[in-house]
Amino acid sequence: MKRILLIGTGGTIASAVTDSGLAPELTTSQLLEHLPEVSDICRVECMQLLNLDSTNVGPSHWKLMSQCIRRYYDDYDGFVITHGTDTMAYSAAALSYLIQQSPKPIVLTGAQKPMGFDSTDSKVNLTDALCCATEDVPGVSIVFNGKVILGTRAKKTRSKSFRAFSSINFPVLGILRDGVLLQFIRPECADAPVFYDDLDDRVALMKLVPGADRRQADFLLEHNDALIIESFGVGGLPENGGFFECVRDWMARGRTVVMTTQVENEGSDLGVYHVGHRLKNTLGVLEAYDMTTEAVTAKLMWILGITKERTEVERLFYTPVARDILWPGE
Fold this sequence. Notes:
Elements: E1 3-10, E2 15-18, E3 21-24, H1 28-32, E4 43-52, H2 59-72, E5 78-82, H3 88-98, E6 99-100, E7 105-109, H4 122-133, E8 139-144, E9 147-150, E10 154-156, E11 165-167, E12 174-177, E13 180-183, E14 194-195, E15 203-207, H5 215-223, E16 226-231, H6 243-252, E17 256-261, H7 274-283, E18 286-287, H8 293-304, H9 310-318
Parallel strand pairs: 1-4, 1-5, 5-7, 7-8, 15-16, 16-17, 17-18
Antiparallel strand pairs: 2-3, 6-14, 8-9, 9-12, 10-11, 12-13
Helix pairs in contact: 2-3, 3-8, 5-6
């Protein structure tokens, strides 16, 4: 029987009702008490790493999760992290860069309703995650509502329903029904994982709105090492408002600028329209193509934690990690 480490970080799955709303209070051991049948699936050992609403989870916590898995990697056959749903996609993406090529499963899960509620998805999601952690599903994934989603492709697309997560621009890895995994895709892996320790959290995100000018971008680029701009459609910046000059000037000072799209599916294509073409071909901004915003954010933090040299940043950005980008950076 396989040995799984269950790592608790908080979230709705571990929450209880308080005077000021739901708050994480249950430990992983207490969660497991609700699932006695799991003892027939695997041997689970519990660790309480954090107990946070996932709104409070950030890069420092991603490094703690990675360091925990690194410390105990040789002792277990798989890992399950219970996590709040609001930032779970960011954490899954970050762990995909901090822990690369893992032959062992690293599964994140959570719930839209707490474990103690009568109508809850907690029990099914946690049982499915533990089942998945015993299977040959290498690398980082999210298991939720019967779906196995690659860590770099997950996005929370529903705020309340049990179908909270979607796989963006990539098929699901598999589905779980009654504790049985039907696997469609096996992620690539190596004989041993490659761990990384550093993240640069000076990465900002700006959502473009009609009528915007360069002032917000200037502020964000002044205080950060990189800026991701979520543009409209296939991508571009307004020709008025000074955006072109803003990007040109800050890139000349060593900042990294990435263009992506606010549209969830099908990705960017800066070459289609004039408003995007010269950004890429004249200024050399990076383009996210079919990557999720969560993956772009985490990947930039990982890259800038390694290097700030422009050509190396570009090379690493366009080098696929855990199937995070499929379109060529051309």
